[in-house]
C-alpha cells in the first residue's frame, strides 16, 4: 500500500537525519532535536532533544539557540532558568534570530 511505502520512506529519512545529527551537521542537529521534542523520532527522551538543540546552538544555528532560550524561559523539558534563558536569547540574537532581537529590545 502507498501508506506503507511512505511510512518506510519516512523512517529511512529520519534515520538519515539522525545519522547526520550524530555526525555533527548543525542543521541536522537542530532538525533531529526538534523531531525528538515533537515525538516524531524513535527516541522518546526529550532531554536528548535538548542536547541536540544545544549542540546545534553551539554550532551557530540561531533558531536552535532561540528554541533553547524559550525552553529555559518556560521551564519546558528543562527547569526554568533565567540566567540560561538570557544566555541563549543573547546568543540567538547575535546569530541573527529576529524574534530574539525583538525580545531583547523589550
Task: Write out key terms for the chains shown.
106 residues; mainly alpha
Task: Furnish the topology, listing elements before pairings.
Layout: H1 2-22, H2 26-37, H3 46-58, H4 62-74, H5 82-94, H6 98-105
Helix pairs in contact: 1-2, 2-3, 3-4, 4-5, 5-6
What this model shows, in words?
The chain is mainly α. Helix content is 75%, strand content 0%. The mean pLDDT is 89.
Q: Summarize this, please?
A:
With 106 residues, this protein is mainly alpha-helical.
- Taken from the alpha-carbon principal axes, the silhouette is elongated
- Report the order of strands and helices: HHHHHH
Number of strands: 0
Strand content: under 5%
How far apart the termini lie comes to: 53 Å
Helix content: over 70%
Low-confidence stretches: none
Amino acid at each position: 500500500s502507498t501508506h506503507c511505502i511512505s511510512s518506510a520512506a519516512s523512517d529511512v529519512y529520519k534515520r538519515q537525519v539522525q545519522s547526520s545529527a550524530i555526525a555533527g551537521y548543525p542543521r541536522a542537529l537542530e532538525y533531529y532535536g526538534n523531531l525528538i521534542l515533537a515525538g516524531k523520532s524513535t527516541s522518546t527522551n526529550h532531554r536528548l532533544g535538548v542536547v541536540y538543540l544545544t549542540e546545534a546552538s553551539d554550532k551557530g544555528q540561531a533558531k536552535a539557540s532561540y528554541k533553547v532560550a524559550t525552553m529555559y524561559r518556560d521551564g519546558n523539558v528543562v527547569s526554568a532558568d533565567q540566567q540560561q534563558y538570557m544566555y541563549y536569547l543573547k546568543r540567538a540574537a547575535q546569530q541573527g534570530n529576529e524574534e530574539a532581537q525583538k525580545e531583547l529590545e523589550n
